[in-house]
Design a protein that fits this description.
409 residues, alpha+beta, Cytochrome Bc1 Complex, Chain A, domain 1, six-stranded mixed sheet, five-stranded mixed sheet, 18% strand, globular
Length: 409
């Protein structure tokens, strides 16, 4: 395995993790922008723009974009999150130059008025569809309640009002700022040719603009609260919790992930045996999400409304015991093995490595092999985990309930 790195004069970064025995390659543009980088007036523009990037360029129609992916036999897609927008493809090595050309061309979209108006209706339909998905609704509501005015409280989809009011010129201005060369990273994994990639990216992307694209990375002070959105639209109770966690730059993030896995994995954890296995709740989970400058511990419960309070009390008791007395060594080792298995299985393909390689660079300007990351996980000690738990992170949790609920305490 070889690592590669090159930066263009305009600030665009090209990184690679080469594996000569791989049968495919994966490539993608990582754009350091997402919902947290929007103002309320243009809420949802990052996700809307992701859709528009597939609607053609000066050289390609929307049909051309899809046809070329299909002609290469590519696995391709894109996603938008709070902090990143990523466009990627997975192909046989002989299509490296063609895939790179297509992805680079997509990064300079036409943003035509007619496509904008058509896709706006698609986004509005997507927002309406999510109104029937309680897991999404309770997550969005909890995030907004927990983060309050902090940018991380923004919705990725935006609102029906913000999307209806959004103008193409606003999207164009956002694109010009946030999709500047110095805010982009092009990532390659698998069996690629580095010199070919470097010269092609220089040629295709070297003339792209550079802009000042700052991100507000500030901490925040949580105000623990409990909130209920009562509705008879759903017949189950959906309860979500958020509490302050560790950032993507914090070295203790691995310990936080291990602690969450041991206490609250969907299967085989303390929470599972206390809450799901005996049938008190239908599903329950605790996890940790590390983001840019901030992080959260989260919890989720799906239960019969009549047992919602009992389920929440049980989760609290499980967490309280873990924080008060700590985890056992065998629990921590078991959690690490589960996480290690997932990490190793994912790392066996170029597509599985693309996101970890890209995110390591976007968040920490690091290039780590799968073995490096695995070792960081395996090095997590019982003491590190229990020191985090001793701080009782869920003591500052915001709790939101959605469904036919009248109260939660």
């Amino acid at each position: 395995m070889q690592r590669h790195h090159h930066q263009l004069s305009n600030g665009l970064t090209l990184i690679g993790e080469h594996e000569s025995t791989a049968r495919t390659l994966a490539a993608g543009f990582f754009v350091r922008t997402g919902a947290r980088d929007e103002t309320p007036e243009i809420s949802g523009v990052s996700h809307f723009l992701e859709h528009m990037m597939f609607k053609g360029t000066a050289r390609r129609s929307p049909e051309d974009v899809n046809r070329e992916f299909d002609e290469m036999g590519a696995r391709y897609n894109a996603f938008t999150s709070d902090e990143n927008t990523v466009y990627y493809g997975n192909v046989l090595p002989r299509f490296q130059e063609r895939l790179t050309d297509l992805l680079a061309d997509m990064m300079r979209p036409a943003l035509r008025d007619e496509d904008f108006n058509v896709e706006k209706n698609v986004i509005l339909e997507e927002i309406a569809m999510y109104q029937d998905r309680p897991q999404y609704l309770v997550f969005d509501l909890t995030r907004a309640t927990f983060f309050q005015s902090h940018p991380m409280g923004a919705s990725v989809l935006g609102t029906a009002e913000s999307i209806r009011d959004l103008q193409r010129e606003q999207m164009q201005e956002y694109f010009s700022r946030r999709y500047a060369a110095n805010n982009l990273t092009f990532v390659l994994t698998g069996n690629y040719d580095w010199e070919t990639a470097k010269s092609q990216i220089e040629r295709l992307c070297g003339g792209w603009n550079t802009e000042n694209a700052p991100r507000e990375v500030t901490g925040f002070t949580p105000s623990p609260t409990t909130k209920i959105q009562e509705t008879d639209k759903f017949n189950r109770a959906h309860i979500y919790l958020m509490a302050p966690g560790l950032s993507a730059q914090d070295k203790r993030r691995y310990a936080a992930a291990v602690a969450s896995e041991a206490i609250g994995a969907a299967e085989g954890s303390r929470l599972y045996w206390a809450l799901v296995h005996p049938g008190i709740a239908e599903a329950a989970q605790i996890g940790h999400d590390a983001s840019d400058g901030v992080g959260v511990y989260y919890g989720y419960i799906l239960a019969d409304p009549a047992r919602a309070q009992e389920s929440l009390n049980t989760l609290r008791a499980v967490v309280a015991e873990a924080c008060a007395t700590g985890l056992k060594a065998e629990e921590v080792e078991r959690a690490k093995r589960r996480m290690a298995s997932h990490m190793v299985l994912s790392a066996e393909t170029p597509m599985g490595r693309l996101r970890p390689v890209g995110m390591d660079w976007v968040y920490r300007q690091e290039q780590k092999s799968a073995d490096d990351s695995l070792q960081l996980l395996l090095d997590v000690s019982l003491q590190e985990v229990n020191e985090l738990l001793a701080a009782d992170p869920f003591n500052q949790a915001t709790i939101v309930g959605l469904g036919p609920l009248t109260q939660l305490q």
